[in-house]
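Two quick folds needed for the group meeting slides. Do the first one here.
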Amino acid sequence: MKFLQIIQIPNWFLDQYNRMNAENCHLSYKEQITLLSNQIADCTSIITPYLSQMGYECTLLIPDYKQLQLKWTVENNISIDHNIWKYSILSRQIEHYKPDILYFSETNDYDSHFLKKLSWKPTLICSYCNSNMCLQQDWREFDLILSCSQAVINKAKQHVMNTSFFFHGFQSRINNTLNNIEKQTDIVFAGKVPDDLSHISVQSLLDVGKEPLGWEGQLSINYFLDAQSQDLANFPAGIVMYDKGSKYGLDYYHALKMGRIALNPIIDDEFDRCIKITGAGTFMLANKNKNLDQLFTSGTEYETYQNKAELIEKIHYYIDHPEKRELIAAKGQQKCIKDYSIEIKMNELNSLFQNCLKNRFPKVMPGTAICYQTKNNRISGYRTIPEYNLSDGQKWLEHARSCFNTGKINEAFDIYEQLSIEYQEQSIDILAEAYDLYQKILHYDHYRLYQSRHYDFGIRPSDKVLDIGNGHSPFILASHLADISLSDHYDGSSEDPVKYVDEKPVYACNIENLTFNDKEFDFVYCSHVIEFAKTPDKACEEIMRIAKRGFIETSTQGKDLWLNNGKNRKHQWIVVNKCNRLIFKEYSPSAIEELQNIILKDFYHSPRNKREKAFSALVLLKPDLVNTMLLWEGRFQYEVCHREQ
């Protein structure tokens, strides 16, 4: 499996590396990136060497390294847009290497807007990020977000199916280069500080910085702030006066190792620095954090403070008691190497990848056919909607009519939709004509009305197909039908009697307790049913139990409100498809209150003029905007949120 890691390295370090290794400029791209990665691999977030040992075919890219990136374009005879060289080259590299897994490490420069433009779509797109700058990113095209920042995890859950608390782990062989470094400084801090001067991390650094001024016998202090000089202009002098500049790679660990106490005011549950401090064998003094106590034991493997007085008191205590300080540091290091080594964390990462790949469903990309294939060579997925050159609108309108009359219904409505977009001034007439054609299709046949235009269910004539909740409008491709009642017609949405179909068996059963064997059906069709379930989690499990794959559709909350459906039809749940995970949110009395007016409902069901017909046609042409739809195979993920939650 091809794995491509994109890692961000500070520009100041790359400039420094260039100056110190100018003699290497004649080497090939591969030789240069190998030299650089070997030099910094042990002390950065580069994980390709470890995944290579697990069988991955790994490639590392450093998109900020302009000199090296331009060399790659020359060697591969690739032209780029030099105005956006970084994005232009990286997109070409992704297309060149064609990774199965694309992994971004601590970079905020590439989000969904960048990914959407790629011609090569990796199977799994992952980002490891801890910075609060990540909170502004658009992650909708990502499959997995990893972080040791709870704020990042919480934000990612809004858009991404898979998230996990994670850090890369400590590379213990770094200690081979640290063993002979002597303690030279009482207090060290290395890392980023926020712009908010009231933040606990800034205040802690300032409190410590002021301390030597008020005690007899000054403390020695070194801060290694990850910031440019212009960023420090507004910082208090009590911090800046101790700044020795940014450190990266092995120099970062040297800076930590030289300190008797490594100050670690934790920013937003960000634990990556905790692993580096303890792994290097330095005594860590951190602000009290309940989540950190899940990784290390306070008082035994590191020490904490809760206020300024306790911070200063513990600094002086542990400076005066080196044997106790070094015992805690040794136990912290032992814990880090035993439980949080890079080898252990890479096994964990591999498991995360495999689980995501196992449960992953394809994303729909514009103009792209996304399909999945079963063992029996049955192909199903999202139907490709071709784009037409509609320069001659009248000619294409006549072609659309011809397509409909010859049975090419999906092609006909593809053209009608694109004509309505291309010719806005005539869109009402075009859409009204499309509505009139829709009326020639059986109204309750949702499959032919719009589903088949967007999905290829991949159903074969020999497949055993169950329609759950068929009511009065059975799925045309179903071989078996099922409804909650075959006689009481007030359970369904329309209160119409169950329709029987010749030679198709009909069963009375509840979706939450289906009377069928495991995997009895090749496909299960469940359209506008599951939102009535009292316990949708049971319904989901039952659907997956009895079938190998299937399709689920419900109304969106918006459709429920403007069609007066939710309250009138006794819908229990708002259903949302978030990254192929069905989210069930229980309707509250206020949320289910409708427009209390049937104007829009009449527009849709009983249009009286061309404008209202155009509105009705738009709803049918764009069903994904008013319906929640999910095509699944094997299993799908779901989440149930009750009102009290």
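Then this one, please, same format:
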Amino acid sequence: MRRKLLFLAGAMLAGLSPHASAQYPGWQHEGSLFIITTPDGADLPASAAEANFPLLVRLNKGSFDFSQTKPKGEDLRFSAGGKPLAYQIEDWDAASGRASVWVKIPQIQGNAHQELKVHWGKADAASESNGAAVFSADNGYTSVIHMNEALKDETGTLKPADAGTTVTPGVIGTGRHFAAGQGIRCGGNITTFPAGADPHSSECWFRAEVAGTNVLGWGNEAKQGKVVMSLASPPHLRMECYFSGADVASGGTLPLAQWVHVAHTYKDGDSRVYVNGVLDGVSTSAAAPLAIKQPANFWIGGWQNDFNFAGDIDEVRISKVARSAAWIKLEYENQKPLQTLVGLIDGQSNAEATGPNNGPDEDPVTPASEWIRSYGNQLEGTTRGGWGNAVRTHIWGKPNYGCHQIGAWGMELATNLVAKYSMPICILNGAYGGTPIWQHQVNPTNRLDTSGEFYHNPYKIYGGLLTRVTAAKLTHGIRGVFWHQGENDSGSGAPTGDWNYKSYQQYFMDMAAAWKQDYPNIRNYYVYQVWPLPCGMGPKDDGIREAQRTLPTLFSNLRVMSTIGAASEHAGRGACHFDLAGYAKFAEFMSPLVEQDHYGLKPTQPVTAPNLKRAWFTTTAKDEIALDFGQPMVWNDEAKINLYLDNQPAAISTGRASGTGITLKLAKPSAATQITYLTGRDWDGKPTNLLFGANKIAALTFCDVGIGVSATAEPARLHFERPDSKTQVRTNKPCT
């Protein structure tokens, strides 16, 4: 059976399956992609119709088996409606498992789904890759430079000459890095470019390091005779056309150090600039029309050999037509980076997060979306169900229960990100309720172990999730793991024969090492600190939360998010699960971190949960303690009841927030050596007595943190034993 693959907004490959081709009888494999221009995709009106559009197809080894093709993709072919399509392979790296291919689509219609077929697998096929056939006069191009190592004009009219730039990762394959004084000379005797006031378009991707530079320019240094794309200061786009009616600027500020797609169009005195596919500046003037003389000059990275641009540039195009708004939007939606987030959810029941009572309807709160996909069955850890639109849950006991389920907060997170960024998401949830961390480990002799029953085979959870990811061909596509677990470790023993909290960090490190081996492109780990006394389980829940809080000291790319801020009317002391509103808070708290890591968000304030960095006495009398959280805090006087010194309620007279910390004035001097915030045995489960950051995220709880005798003194720190250790190596007493 052939699995059709979604090609969302002309940008996403969700999986190709091999199938013998009828269109190309000698080819062994075929797959289908879809160009979606409905509101679920590029969102073009039904009236839009763009002819001979060069569509970017990105291939990666998570969805395409490069071993089935010839070494350089010579046997790759594309077709639509039974007719072969011209294509160009810009970048093909079988070893790394990625490729960028341009395909010339005869017509892309607005508000439609169009099928594009891919064919591969013929040992004696010769390459038909041809840039001039994709970028040609019939679709209006006069120069197209991919900015890769070849540095070639695909239309064949120019011979770019490099002046010191270097190859660097680009938006599509590779691009070029420019330092001040470096650029590209594209010629000084060009007769094929638009002349006079002829219609034209200039566009590229760039990632600038500084403003006040020229990105590219063509024409001549004569009155109304040039088109120069400048990044003015403060950063915004300005088209400088020698005091002609074509002068126009963008209305918004452009970010530095981020890839931006910019396009300028000119026709009949109408000059427009587009930023990231959106119109951002218009100038209409019949006075002083352009008067570009031939032959023309063309520079990238500056103007008239004055190369001052600093940063990266990719995909430079000059056209003899004024591109339509629909064309430019489609380009951006098709080419933009960071197209798809693929993530895993793991842990126990609050990671399953099916929601209250699993019904009565399938899921009226978060309906299925083609933009949110999953694979296999979460409950069974099997591939049953294959690919499908993700859901919060199906009905317990029904045949489809477990299929494509990603849980309440997983669905909420995905839905919010898709709505905000219009990029598809794939999530696989492999959580299983009621399981301690040692039941989430990999079988070192059989990583795909799914034998036996859950709870009896400690490797079944890991093996089941890996089996699903492998079958979905996503092992190299996983970018992040979300982990919510620890309830069952809060009051039980580990295989070591001691409390679970002592070996929790080592088990997590072993598990993360296995993830990294099986999912080598993981970038980030997102951990939720569990609820105090979760599901009424203790008495070592404070120790589990401390082990989770300090995990970032062992990883460079792991952040911990608090859950106590998700308290609601249904929550309380010893609460177990959350209602949908509580799970929605999980997604709300974690979303900015994900956006920062994978969507290019530049937050204006910290998006992390406040995490205590250190504590110390500020006076020799030891009657005042400073707590440094590394980010702005808010003092809550009611939180005094949740602070402890040497495991006894702290006698605090006043508190105040200042800078990145909180200062506690004690009622009397103290000889305490440790400070704790919030214990499972005492907390009432309500948010009114919590500490919050200025970002309104609840601080992580902490347990038995050493208090330094001064700001420079190093206090005792916590250490946790290895699972195979016979000796506890903790430097101070356990959290109680």
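Slide caption for protein two: Helices lie at 131-134, 325-335, 349-352, 408-421, 460-471, 500-518, 541-549, 580-598.
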